[in-house]
Structure formats: structure tokens, C-alpha cells
Amino acid sequence: MRNNVMKWGLLLLALMIASPSATAQTSLRVVASFSVIAELVKGVAGDAVSVDVIVPPDEDVHRWELTPPNVLALEETDLVIYNGLELEPWLRDVKAIVENDLPMVALAEQADYPALPLTSGRYQGYANPHMWMAPEGAAAYVDIIADTLSKHAPDHADAFDQRAADLKQTLKELDAELEERLGGIPQTNRTLVTSEAGLAYFADAYAFDYDALWGVNHETMGTAAAMARMQARLAEKRPPGLFFESTTPEIHMDAQARYADLPLAGPLYVDALSGSDGPASSYADMLRHNAEQLHATLGGAREED
Ligand SMILES: [Zn+2]
């Protein structure tokens, strides 16, 4: 009798080990290209998946050289999740070192969200890669992330779907909050000008007229032609202020601001979250910080009105 109890106990133990519960960790390892995508992947994956990031907070996602820890993470990963639409030109270096059959998923290229064209700089007419800057764009990324993780860890698919649904609800609430905050900016002040065209989707979502000196940070910044075009534009339509971003040099916008005699504000955050002690250490805080910067600079009635 006692022997039987022990046998059943051992059998039960073996079954428990063989069938992982829904909350157990998988062995799945994911490398995300930069801080924003890493946060979205972690939001869907929970504790079930190990997530590494290539470009850390405060560093420009466009311009990066792989570090030894990056190479180690890439050698061990099962999956790379990146933005695509040429946001990360250094992916060429990644593809050179990983196995040919390593799955690589480009969120912006698969997302069910309309791409906007770049309207300034060397790559005019190409799709603008900064789709995550609209919460609805980020929600479209979340769908692709949930599908991708479920394909690689099907035992956890229900948990991934649930967390994706929760995350999309949070993004919807954030969108409504930003809409309300930015809605107060007078119509005459709704011109947003930045160094890089990284806020195109944000400007589109919240009804700002938008322009930038260049399209993407990995092209030549602030060419003479770009600077002259912007000077003419600002002479014609004077916004209450101009903005620079955390990962762009301030000098070009500073020159524009001096020439046009307009205030310069920033930094806005686009291509990187800030470190944990900065004002944009999460996706929601990044968009809230940007909205407050816009509100402070564009929000009041114009002096000449
Ligand atoms: Zn950018």
C-alpha cells in the first residue's frame, strides 16, 4: 500500500514536471532592437520570455555599433524583433553574424496601421519608420508581437493574448488623455517643427501641421539646402516655438531659432526612452513628456494675437 502511494506520488511529480503551467517561464529568448520595442515586447511577454535590447535607453536607434554584449545576446537568441522600414540600418551587421534561419520580425512593416511618407530629407517619399509615436501605431505593433510570441511559445498563447489586450486598452486610454491635453492648444499654434521627422505619426494623430529639417537621423543632418528651406518656411509661417529631440544635436534647430527669433524647446523623446531617472523612462511617460513640452511652448495665445 505504502509503495503504491509512493509510486503514484512519483508519477504525479513526473507529470507536473512534464507539463509546464501557464505562468512558468519558457526558454524563449528575444532580442529587441531598441528601448521602446523592448518595453512593448515585455508588456506582452510578462515574465515568460527573456528579453534583451540592442540599443539602450538614451541612445539613438538609427546610429549604433554592435557591442560585445549585443553579439552574445544575438548568438543566444531565438528571435529578433525590430521596427523595420530602414529605422535600424545597423541590422546589416546583425544579419552578418546570426544564422540565416534566425526569425527576424519587422513590426512597422507588418503592422495594420497606415504608413506615412517622409516629406523632408534624403529619403523623401519612403515610408516614415517612426510609427510607434502614435499610440494606435504602437497598438498595431502589440498585435504582431502577440502573434509572434504565440507562434514560438504556443503553450503561453492565452496569456500573451490577455496581456496584449490589456496593453492595447492602456494605449487607448493614453491616446484619449493626450488628445484631451493637446486639444487645448489653439488652432493658430498647431504647427510642430522638429529636427528629425520622428513626430510625423504623433502630429498626424493629434492634428498638428508638421515639418522637420531632415527625415531620419542616419542621413546627413542639417544640409545647407535643408537649413535654407526651413528658414523660408519659418519666415512664411511662424510657430510659437521650435523643438529639438533627445537624440539629435541641438545646433541645427538652435541656428533656426536664432535666425527666426523664436524660442527653442526640448528635448522631445522619439528614438529612445530616457534612463530610469529621466522624464521618459516608459513609453507612456515619453508621450506625456512630449505633450507637456508642446503644451508649454505652443499652448498659450500668441503674443501678437
Ligand atoms: Zn528617428
UniProtKB/TrEMBL annotation:
GO terms for cellular component: cell envelope. Gene3D superfamilies: Nitrogenase molybdenum iron protein domain (3.40.50.1980). It comes from the Bacteria. One of its GO terms (biological process) is cell adhesion. It is found in: Cell envelope. Keywords: Metal-binding, Signal, Transport. It holds the Pfam family ZnuA. Its main location: other. One of its GO terms (molecular function) is metal ion binding. Residues 1-24 form the signal peptide. Belongs to the bacterial solute-binding protein 9 family. This is Manganese/iron transport system substrate-binding protein. It comes from Vreelandella subterranea.
